[in-house]
Amino acid sequence: MQCINCRQQEANKESGLCDSCETLDKQKINGLLYLPAAGLIINILCIPYGFYAFIGAIINFLRQTGIISWYAIGGVAVMLIDAVMTLTASWYFFRRKKGIRKVLVAYYLLGVAYMLYFVVVPAWLYGAYIDGNDIRNALFPVIGAAVWIPYFLYSRRINTVFCR
């Protein structure tokens, strides 16, 4: 049986690929790594909407009260930092750069800090009501960090895919 990819060499029974094609396949972003890739892409696509909604809320608050709160200024700063970090993490991830571990750990920790700023701080400072959507929004970054940080720190696959 020939390799299903190159059709030139004898294929291994388990994968259907020859040894050289298996080596190339191990270096691709596939399998479980599609999940963080999808998360990065979705986050990039959601950044403009987040800015639009938050800036709209700030402008609405400014029209009603005539002031811009420190919380709003901090929120814009947190959103800018998150946007830069998301773009940096995407660059490292899709270019398969060597420092991906540090960048993605920082990305996921910043996601938790982002959630704390926009979910927990309003409830703590202003007594905002936390509903089911807020709890869901709080759990996703925490679960993501709890799953992906150890994966990127300890997985051997990261060495073969990213650390060339």
Q: Which series of helices and strands comes N to C?
A: HHHHHH
Radius of gyration: 21 Å
Helix content: over 70%
Mean of the pLDDT scores?
88
| Number of beta strands | 0
Q: Runs with pLDDT <50, length 5+?
A: none
* Class derived from helix and strand content: mainly alpha
**Strand portion:** under 5%
Question: How would you summarize the topology of this molecule?
Answer:
Layout: H1 19-26, H2 34-65, H3 70-94, H4 100-126, H5 132-154, H6 156-161
Helix pairs in contact: 2-3, 3-4, 4-5
Textual characterization of the structure:
- This protein is mainly alpha-helical.
- The protein has one domain (30-161).
- It has six helices and no strands.
- It has helices spanning 19-26, 34-65, 70-94, 100-126, 132-154, 156-161.
- Helix 2 packs antiparallel against helix 3 (70-94), helix 3 runs antiparallel to helix 4 and helix 4 (100-126) runs antiparallel to helix 5.
- The protein is elongated, with a radius of gyration of 21 Å.
- The mean pLDDT is 88.
Question: Short description, anyone?
Answer:
This is DUF2569 domain-containing protein. This protein is mostly helical. The chain has helices at residues 19-26, 34-65, 70-94, 100-126, 132-154, 156-161.
